[in-house]
Amino acid sequence: MQKMKLFDEKGKLFGLVNPIDLLVILLIVLVAGGVVYKTKFSAAGTAAKTVYATVRIPLVIPDVANKPKVGDKIVSGSSYTEVEIVDVKVNPAQVVTSKADGGRFLATDPWNKDVYVTVKGKTGIPDAEINLGGQEIRAGKDYYVKSFTYELKGTIVDVKVE
Predict the structure, then answer these.
(1) What is the pTM of this model?
(2) Averaged over 72-83, what is the pLDDT?
C-alpha cells in the first residue's frame, strides 16, 4: 500500500490546491465573515429605540437664532438623516460676568440668544454608545445642529431613550 504524500511534486496540498492559494482564500472568507457579523448581527440584535437629545446652543446672534424650525431634518455629511427637530426654544443668552470685587454672577445678554433644540430619531443601541444621525449622543458632548441652510454648534444637555 502506497502512502499518500502531504505535498505532491508540484507543491499542492494533497494534490489538490496550492497552500498559498488556500491561505488567501481562508483570509478572504474570514474577513468577509467578520464584516457580515459586524454589520448584520451587532446592530440587528437590538431593537430600534426613539432617542431625544436636547442641545443648548449658546450666544447665537438674533438673525441666526430663528433659523432652526420644528420639522427640519438634520444633515450628516452631505445627506439628510432620519433625525428631525421636534422642539426649538429661543431665550435671552445667559453669560457669566465679573463684579468689581472679583465675584461672578449670571447675567442676561441683551443681544445674543441661547437656542435650545430638541432632536428626535430612531436608532439601534448595540453597545455603550448612542449614535444618532452620524453623531455620538451623550450629555456634555458637542453636537452640530446642521440643516440645509444653517449649522450651529452646541452641547447636549439632556438625553432620553424610549
Answers:
(1) 0.69
(2) 93
